[in-house]
Specification:
By secondary structure, this protein is of the alpha/beta class. The protein is built from 14 helices and 5 strands. α10 links the parallel β1 and β2 (175-178).
């Protein structure tokens, strides 16, 4: 899809969320501009391109390239997007937990707890703003009618892939997750029309995830991507793209902050699939799974199963 095919509302929506997510992949000059923008978006919305360039110590051309990196047509559209983002922040609901900021080497335990809580809560809120409801429903319909579902993810995204496998299997859907690229490629080669391949990658650039998703597509399988970067290479391989949010920061690279948004999206998919199946079918599928594992629970002295946990 070209820039011309994207509406202005789509390009400007959630610009600060996209920018925070893109930070690790930006060049030094782009990061300098990003720091100026994120430091005071309301003020930047009132500045000229030359004023922003001077504050970031870059050229006007670098600011224009930065805007295009965000998927915008230029600096005027960035100003409009920032003004809208500031207005939304003041009018919409936000999860607010403690003081915002990256974890520093000399932070106390109490400060770490508050900052982590804020970052994780922000990842959920930012994912709410990034996730398109229409695409979510299209993805749930695709998965519901799939003959076979495979999920690819490595590193921290591999844990999210395993969570998706667990949830979909709970509903009785034929889903398998792969974090080993050789196994992923081998199984992707056997997919075809009617099957669905899901690639999960926070950066959208993990080759071990891109390769099996591409292989599955070559054999006619439908493809779905879950990523933090809506302009990353994985989106070119996917029929449908779901966007999460969560900025990795020092001390937390590959940690909960990059997974929390992805897990939130997977939960939303799970709930929409359960709703589509209807309460009777969903309860029947869950009951089958619960009964199948019940005999593996610890037995108390009176011969009854202990605890009320369910799988």
């Amino acid at each position: 899809m070209s820039e011309e095919d994207v509406s202005p509302n789509d390009r400007t929506a959630g610009v600060l969320v996209r920018l925070r997510g893109l930070l690790p992949s930006l060049s030094a000059k782009e990061q300098a501009i990003a720091e100026v923008v994120l430091g005071d978006p309301a003020n930047v919305a009132q500045l000229s391109i030359s004023q922003v360039a001077r504050r970031a110590e870059v050229s006007d051309t670098s600011v224009t390239r930065f805007c295009r990196r965000l998927g915008l047509t230029g600096y005027p559209e960035l100003r409009l997007a920032l003004a809208a983002a500031v207005q939304h922040a003041h009018s919409g609901w936000r999860l607010r937990v403690g003081t915002q900021g990256d974890i520093e080497p000399d932070d106390t335990a109490a400060e770490v707890i508050v900052k982590m809580a804020h970052a994780d809560a922000s990842a959920i809120q930012d994912s709410v703003e990034q996730l398109d409801a229409t695409t979510l429903d299209a993805a749930s319909r695709l998965l519901a009618r799939a003959r076979r579902i495979e999920v690819y993810g490595v590193g921290s995204s591999g844990l999210v892939a395993a969570d998706m496998e667990y949830k979909l299997q709970h509903l009785g859907l034929p889903c398998s997750a792969f974090s080993d690229v050789h196994r992923a490629l081998m199984n992707a080669a056997h997919l075809g029309p009617g099957d669905v391949a899901v690639g999960i990658s926070h950066s959208g650039r993990t080759q071990e995830t891109l390769d099996p998703l591409r292989e599955a597509s070559l054999h006619g399988a439908s493809t779905l991507a879950l990523t933090n970067d809506s302009r990353s290479p994985i989106t070119a391989l996917a029929d449908l793209v779901l966007c999460s949010a969560g900025r990795e920061a020092p001390f937390r690279s590959g940690a909960t902050i990059s997974r929390i948004g992805q897990l939130f999206v997977v939960d939303c998919l799970y709930v929409r699939l359960a709703q589509a199946s209807g309460p009777d079918a969903t309860n029947a599928a869950l009951s089958l799974a619960h009964r199948a594992v019940e005999r593996h629970r610890a037995v108390s002295g009176n011969g009854t199963s202990e605890g009320k946990e369910r799988p």
